[in-house]
Amino acid sequence: MELGYGLEASGRPFIWVVKEVEERRVLGVEEWMKKFETRVEGRGMVIRGWVPQTLMLGHVAVGGFVTHCGWNSTLEAIAAGVVMATWPHLYDQFFNEQLVVDVLKIGVAVDIEEPKLHDIWNDNEMAVKVKREEVEKVLERLMGGGEEGDERRERAKELKEKARMAMEEGGSSWKGLQDAINYALESRKKMQ
User: Fold this and answer.
1) Of 108, 171, 172, 187, which sits 20 to 30 A from 45 (CA to CA)?
2) Strands, DSSP E only, in 70-189?
């Protein structure tokens, strides 16, 4: 709900993909979602369920991506040249956030506290606690951001081009896949 309030307060157009809304975890959340959708109608869209994320990230109208920093989502955003608001939840996602924000410099951290390992079985303790004001602030930095934001978007475009070149015939990713295929074929021949 705090993410929704932050998206609403940002004043920016958005698509929010919600995989599930669990009434049993937060009483009244279903009713809140209905009211939220009414309040942001015409500026924001809520999609319940699955979406083709790669296709969406590649759309020219997408200016930024709020991500949990899973490796697939991170790579998809990099390959699409999209800047990211990073909101990791568990494990390696915090390392991926460091890569996006500190190394590649194409993201803005939501600045959440990494959950403690001993709290892993307590859902209430594992909940990532971020206030709407923080979401609004991060979205403004990500989507506006002045000179810093312009530099972030330019780096994202450069990485998109590098990713495209790596996947073309003769590129490093293409060669790596070709090597894996050749290895599998050679191994199969040896077994016959």
Assistant:
1) 108
2) 83-86, 107-109
